[in-house]
Amino acid sequence: xxxxxxxxxxxxxxxxxxLTGGRIRKIYQPETDEIRILVNIGKENYHVLLSANxxxxxxxxxxxxxxxxxxxxxxxxxxxxxxxxxxIVDITQHETDRVLEISISSKNEFNDTVIRKLxxxxxxxxxxxxxxxxxxxxxxxxxKVGSTSSxxxxxxxxxxxxxxxxxxxxNFLKFDTDSFNxxxxxxxxxxxxxxxIQAFLGISPAIAREIAFRSGINPNSSISELSKKQEQYFxxxxxxxxxxxxxxxxxxxxxxxxxxxxxxxxxxxxxxxxYHRETYSSVSEMLEDYYYKRDKAIRFKTRSANLRHQLDTLxxxxxxxxxxxxxxxxxxxxxxxxxxxGDLITANIYALEKGQETATLINYYDSDxxxxxVPLKVNRTPAQNAQSYYKKYNKSKIALQHLSGYIxxxxxxxxxxxxxxxxxxxxxxxxxxxEIRHEFLHSEFNKKTLSKEDKKKQTPSKPLHYLSSExxxxxxGKNNYQNDYISTKMxxxxxxxxxxKDAPGSHVLIMANGRFIPEKTVLEAGVLAAFYSKSKxxxxxxxxxxxxxxxxxxxxxxxxxxxxxxxxTMYVTPSQDAVDAMEIVIDNN
Length: 589
Prior knowledge:
Elements: H1 5-19, E1 23-31, E2 34-41, E3 44-51, E4 58-62, H2 74-83, E5 87-93, E6 99-107, E7 113-121, E8 128-132, E9 138-141, E10 170-171, H3 177-186, H4 192-199, E11 200-201, H5 205-215, H6 228-247, E12 252-256, E13 259-264, E14 276-279, H7 283-333, H8 336-347, E15 358-362, E16 371-375, H9 382-426, H10 430-441, H11 452-455, E17 464-467, E18 473-476, H12 480-490, E19 496-500, E20 508-510, H13 519-531, E21 541-547, E22 551-552, E23 563-564, E24 568-572, H14 576-580, E25 583-584
Helix pairs in contact: 4-5, 5-6, 7-9, 8-9
């Protein structure tokens, strides 16, 4: 997921068309490491985002807006002083490195026209945004770099600007067969992938793997392992990749199993099998969507971490409690021997004396009348020993009656907690996370006082919507609130309702819409029910299915809790491929 020199190359081509000749009307700094510039050209306004964030350095045209601080930071004031109302005259890339150069024509203090450059270095933790004058002297920078941080390159006002070190790497647009062969000679012990990265400016690991793939070479092979023929293929593969992005950009985000794995501005052939891509009309549109989704995923993970920890802790606590209850139950089931000991002591009471440790007595209840050894307390009389065993028996009997209730109660708690965790696993949107959090806060497990915000009723989020291969609409709940909506609001008597058997999972509904639901569609829905459940990684998963009219929600039941009758059971093996093959419907209403 690298913002490499190839991505920047295509972005600059896009910037040149849209921004050259544009006038800088506004400059904002909403974050300590982010600048936003409003560029006006004709009737169009473009919001240019430039970020030197250590984790997400980036540059693109954005459609989103951010709230600005009441007092602009000092770097923002410097930019306003020198380039506000200036005209963008050129946009270039330093060699093929990740350095964006925006040349701006503006007036100096003597009202003379001068060219200043805004340099954006997109280089991970070393990313920076720097303003230089026409003689390449630094006017100011977002991040100051002194001699204690770098001996080679200080970034301070008044210093000469020096480009980031190239470490003898070549511009990948300017090389020939001789220079390529020289690179191979110098990198005999280096792998093909690392050679591409270390020898050329702006080549990312994804592009290096693409070059190896098109060359038919293992990217992890060392250069010394290549035959002369393979070296020729390597060169041809390299040229082919370079030529492919010289022609035009192919902005796309790559997914595997609906999980975003990378973005690129070329068609990565090595990520075709088992991957799918979403294409965009512009590089900026792709980058904005990618970083928005990535930021959303990070925020979702951060916000869900505390809730997941709470749920996991409660689940472990109740699982341990259930285990102990079963041990107590097992122990209580052995209480019949206490009654037997009491009966045998009573039957032989005159043959026993105080002070005995054991007594060997004939078991009259055994068909063979075999003798058994009964432990006795030496400080008790035979009658007291008998009463002690009767007391233990009665205590165990009463405990057994209560234990069955405790076990059922604990099993229900475990099932409910697992349903919340399953909902958390299925959720991808922040509103779905808020629903699960809201449900947890209103459950018996939350001991904290609810705030006014927490007491507010949740606006329900939308369940997943699939279309079967035979054209039937299938809805899948991703959490208990969505399950509740599917099972109480959406269905009609002739619809088909499905749920994985004896495990937490999604409620699934097939809408009949006046048609008979064929077996193939029921099987597809069964796969969805199994996949969106705790049993998703199992095979031959039992799934119950029934007509919706046999479904009922008990009074005062928890969200997503229903009872049903007249069900049939099928066995399916869920798989990601089977789910990905189904058409998903985007509901915009």
